[in-house]
From TrEMBL, chain A:
Pfam families: ESCRT-II
InterPro entries xref list: ESCRT-II_cplx_Vps25-sub, ESCRT-II_cplx_Vps25-sub_N, WH-like_DNA-bd_sf, WH_DNA-bd_sf
Gene3D superfamilies found in the cross-reference section: Winged helix' DNA-binding domain. Chain C. Domain 1, Winged helix-like DNA-binding domain superfamily/Winged helix DNA-binding domain
Protein family membership: Belongs to the VPS25 family.
Example of a GO MF term: structural molecule activity
Protein known as: Vacuolar protein-sorting-associated protein 25
Record has 4Fe-4S as a keyword: no
Keyword line: Cytoplasm, Protein transport, Transport
From TrEMBL, chain B:
UniProt name for this protein: Vacuolar-sorting protein SNF8
A Pfam family: EAP30
Protein family membership: Belongs to the SNF8 family.
Keywords per UniProt: Coiled coil, Cytoplasm, Protein transport, Transport
Localization, UniProt: Cytoplasm
Length: 177, 169
């Protein structure tokens, strides 16, 4: 699924990279724009996890041409905001690396379950690999999804009693109801 | 007098829609150029042509209705104000100074206008407070105050679907 990516106008606007703006309304717009940009950037680059150090130096937060970079304290605030929205999960206690999900696990879960139902495969068992890399799912949005995000999506479905994560011969799989 | 079906009445409605849609980007301040571009885009190719003079005339009518519209002359063109932000002569003259580069600094104000630091700071604080300016702390030397309304990169950027929704009643 091709996706066009263009840096938003804010990316070329120098103040965008200053720590969060003093005006409350402006700050909200700035934060929202950053959250949106992080998700589209990671989606485009198929990046599902990152370290904070990587993020600091990535073109995402460091616009070399403009000679502006978002300070690490502000990056932390943006990441925290994404966590609150359900798009980010810290992978370690010291908050040095994180999982980034441009679609929340609930949203992925819904898409996957819709496909299962549509193709009449309730009560079928799949390996995780089959789900994300099998021929059958080639046209689906979740094709190619990284395992960490997939697991979280399935965990949501499990809580909703729509699926059960099981162990299969060489790893993990899932049964749908 | 405005009458329904009046060319300027309809143009006024279009102007309001563009300003509403872009308000969250520029805080309610837009150059006549950008407004013109966006209005022309919205009219499509079979619509009657509209000049910048037409826009000014329509805006003057909107002003007369007490809608909060304002026309601020800057560097040979105009900034159109669509939200009733309190802008006095001091603010206006700083806007005119900012028009050249899209930003302004305390030093620039002091040098060009011969003001005291405090007077310059107050105007800039006010522009920040009204959401018309953003603060840039990574500029060389001193803080730069940038106005999205004057940020030419923003011109002719498509109005997004979300922004268009803002314009609907």
């Amino acid at each position: 699924m091709a996706m066009s990516f263009e840096w938003p106008w804010q990316y070329r606007f120098p103040p965008f990279f200053t720590r969060l703006q003093p005006n409350v309304d402006t700050r909200q717009k700035q934060l929202a724009a950053w959250c949106s940009l992080v998700l589209s950037f990671c989606r485009l680059h198929k990046q599902s996890s990152m370290t904070v150090m990587e993020a600091q130096e990535s073109p995402l937060f460091n616009n070399v041409k403009l000679q502006r970079k978002l300070p690490v304290e502000s990056i932390q605030i943006v990441l925290e905001e994404l966590r609150k929205k359900g798009n980010l999960e810290w992978l370690d206690k010291s908050k040095s690396s994180f999982l980034i999900m441009w679609r929340r696990p609930e949203e992925w879960g819904k898409l996957i379950y819709q496909w299962v139902s549509r193709s009449g495969q309730n009560n079928s068992v799949f390996t995780l690999y089959e789900l994300t890399n099998g021929e059958d799912t080639e046209d689906e949005e979740f094709h190619g999804l990284d395992e960490a995000t997939l697991l979280r999506a399935l965990q949501v479905l499990q809580q909703e009693h729509k699926a059960e994560i099981i162990t299969v011969s060489d790893g993990r799989g899932v049964k749908f109801f | 007098m405005l009458g329904v079906g009046d060319f300027y009445y309809e143009l006024g409605v279009q102007i309001i829609e563009v300003c509403l849609a872009l308000k969250h980007r520029n805080g309610g301040l837009i150059t006549l150029e950008e407004l013109h571009q966006q209005v022309l885009k919205g009219r499509g190719k079979f619509a009657q042509d509209v000049s910048q003079d037409d826009l000014i005339r329509a805006i003057k009518k909107l002003k007369a209705l007490g809608t909060g519209f304002g026309i601020i002359p800057v560097g040979g063109t105009y900034l159109i104000q669509s939200v009733p932000a309190e802008l006095n002569m001091d603010h206006t003259v700083v806007l005119q100074l900012a028009e050249k580069n899209g930003y302004v600094t305390v030093s620039e104000i002091k040098t060009s206008l011969k003001w005291e630091t405090e007077r310059a700071r107050q105007v800039l604080e006010h522009l920040l407070k009204e959401g018309l300016a953003w603060l840039d702390l990574q500029a060389p030397g001193e803080a730069h105050y940038w106005l999205p309304a004057l940020f030419t990169d923003l011109y002719s950027q498509e109005i997004t679907a979300e922004e268009a929704r803002e314009a609907l009643p």
